[in-house]
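anyone seen this seq b4? input:
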Amino acid sequence: MKRWRFIRSLVGTTLAFALAGGRALSQQPAVLPEHINGEAQRAIVRGLQYLGETQNPTGSWFNAGNMGSYPTAMTALAGLALLANGSTPREGRFAPHLKRAVHLLLAEAEAGPTGLISSAMEGRSMHGHGFAMLFLAECLGETADEKTETRLRAALHRAVELTARAQSPAGGWIYTPDGNGDEGSVTVTQIQGLRACRNAGIKVPRTTIERAVKYLELCQNADGGIGYSLAQRGGSRPPISAAAVATLYASGRYDSAMTKKCLDYVIRTVTPNGRETYGHWFYAHLYMAQAMYQVHDKRWDSYFIALRDRLLGTQNADGSWNGDGVGPVYGTAIACIALQLPYDYVPIFQR
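predicted toks r here
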């Protein structure tokens, strides 16, 4: 995994944040990226500590929200938050946590013949499958264990094949692989997961991604936003539109007219302190932060400062963030991913 590029300019001095009890949770550079101040760094450390302490012995994370536990999706998102701090399954403060998460998701992938990465508790399995593809692809090459690397490659090959088979005639995906339908929130998870797999050297059918991007294009409304689905488009959905921009960037569509129009829409409608996310604030800003980080101009600066300050003001005493009714693991993982984007550790999120 590529390391935070700014570290190369440092002499090697690092700063360890020690919390109550004297444990240093992670090694961070003494000179921080722009807009990551000391308060933000402390919030990140507390959030990561919460995730580290709430992982189950099996390697999974559950939720205490009112929308179900979704352990596959939660495990993948929490794992991405730990990767975003610079740990990998073979090194770093959270290496043991990441190793357990990898082996749990591999066991899920190998439990059945289809290639679906999902637990029996995962009601809407394709969301978790997409997040798991993304997380495992970012771990490939980082385990220092050839047997695990072989298992990872095999699991990701089968996961890609499952996603390709589950694609609807219109080019999108729905909540389950046999659902024979499509909608935006699942589709973006598959596009990003497929892109991460391709980046990691896993063969991905080009037509699968092209059809998926075309699906988003067909779901675009005149205002630039993306509707819920092709069959039930309705008005534009700001959270799905933010996710679409991030995944279009991930698929290399930086300068397309569709991407620019969608970006303009989400900049107009999605703000850290606004109420335009239809109850999906964390979901919207998981992707909005990625999209704005790629924009990399004054719009990113103003957006990230507002996002950072909103998150600093809403963190719980135990280090967690509430997550749109889904639960604190979900909220904490997303908050930590967004806050750590400037560290530039995770390839799929890098500029």
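The longest strand covers residues 24-29. Confidence is low (pLDDT under 50) at residues 1-27. kinda curious what u guys think
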